[in-house]
Structures are given as C-alpha cells and as structure tokens.
Amino acid sequence: MLISGFLVKPRSSKNGVSKTQSAGNQRHQSSLVGTSETTCTTTYPSSFCEWLAGILDGDGSIQVSNKGYTFLEITMGLEDLRLLRYIQHMLGGSIKMRSGAKAYRYRLHNQLGMIKLINCINGNIRHSARLLQLHRVCQVLDNPLILPNTLSAQSNWFAGFFDAEGTIGIAMKHRLPQLSIRVNNQLLQDVESYKVVFGGNIYFSSSQNGYYQWSVQSRKDVIMMRHYFKSSTFRSHKSRRFFLISEFYSLYDLKAFQPSSMNHKAWLAFLDKWNKLMI
C-alpha cells in the first residue's frame, strides 16, 4: 500500500487486524515500514538500545547531509560529558566542545557505525520529530523503518528520555518542601507515556513558546519512580538526585526543614549535597 509517498507494511496483530501509518511525506523515494518483529540482530544489549533511543528522542538529531551522508549528533551540558563518553565507548564517534556554548557535541557519521546505530534504535524511537528523521535515514541506508512498540514500566526508554529532558527538584509549597520529578517537551504525545505508565499529571506552560510538563509530586508516585530508577540505568549528572530521595523523606518526617528543629543542621547538609547536583 502506498501512503503519502511511502510503501507501508502493515503492523501484524494476533487477531489478524492490521493498521497502516504514514511516517512523513517524501517525494523521491519510497521506504518500507515494518514492525519490531523485523529487527535486525544487533551487537548491543536491548537495555542500551532502549536507553539510547530515549536520549536521542530528547537531545539527539539523526540527519542526512546535503551530499547524502547520514550522521548522528547529541548535544548535552558540560556536566554530562561522562554520559557522552559512554555513548562514544559503545558506538565510536567523536566529542567536541561547542564553540561559545557550555555544552559538548557527540557526532557519529561513518556508514558502518550508522548502520549499527539504526539496527539498535529502530523500533525504539518514538518522538514525533525524531521518528521522521529516522525514516529519512532509513531510506538512505535502505533499511525499513520499524514502528515503536507500546512502552511498559520495564522499558529503559524512560530512563534515557529523563536523562535528556527530565529534572528532579525541591520547592517550598505552603511552607513545606515538596520534591517533584518532571519531564518537559513541546508536544503532549511525547510526554503522555509517562502519565500512562507512572501516573502523575501533565501541565501546559505558555513560557518558552509553550511546552507540556509531566510531573509527579505525591510521595507514592515519587517512590514508584525511585523503584524504577533502581531497576533501570540512568547516566546523567542530575539523575544522581535519585539516590537522595530516601534521605529527603527521612528528614521531612523529622521536620528537619524547620529552623527550630534539632535536626536542622542535617537538613542544611542535605541541601548542600542536593545543590551540588544543580541542574
């Protein structure tokens, strides 16, 4: 079936019902869309591929140059150089500091490396813009695009997307400290998976040209995210705050945040550790 210039392979289902989906509008070349069942064997663990796809959905760019070469770029702050070094160790590529910006840029452009990358992330990419970029790269590499599967609480994609787009913060509300975990994105569909799997709420902010923010603030929901953190691999500088969640609630229960508390010095020491992981 040809839809919007693409040859589309329907996703198979157990009940025999199939659906078709267009991934963009290219004029010059058709490309096959498959399902996760057609994934090529990759040398990378599935947990790494899921996590990497989350990173790319948040901070990556998969492009085709004017000369027809494919390449990957990931830009992150200075504090996440260790994370980029890990990706470089797994994929190869290069890292350079961006001129005039407090950030590093990772780049991969050799064809063999890009083929291995696509075999790794294909079927895990789900961000609206990134999926279109992936489809264009798949055309050049003559590789069918694989549509993303439904996410579960065991998926490492959430960890990768949090490393790219998430925050953990403490704010005073009604004179009480409140810990929250948040993930931001400009499109609603790119954060609503967090709400479906982990609960919480989604808010819209009109600042910065408008964006959607998923957030969990209740103790129960935050603890659920901490359990997910223990079962998945986070690698960003900010994710180290997950290790401090238990200490936060222990001091909160002691009301150590109150200046009159005998444990107030412990609260101040905690805040010092927390702020050293400024994000």
From TrEMBL:
What keywords are assigned to this protein? Endonuclease, Hydrolase, Mitochondrion, Nuclease
Homing endonuclease LAGLIDADG domain location is 52-140, 159-248
Q: Where is the region Disordered?
A: 1-34
Q: Where is the signal peptide?
A: none
Protein origin, superkingdom: Eukaryota
Provide the GO MF annotations for this entry. Answer: endonuclease activity
**One Pfam family per UniProt:** LAGLIDADG_1
Q: Where is the composition biased (Polar residues)?
A: 13-30
- Protein's name in the database: DNA endonuclease
- The source organism is Peperomia polybotrya (Coin leaf peperomia)
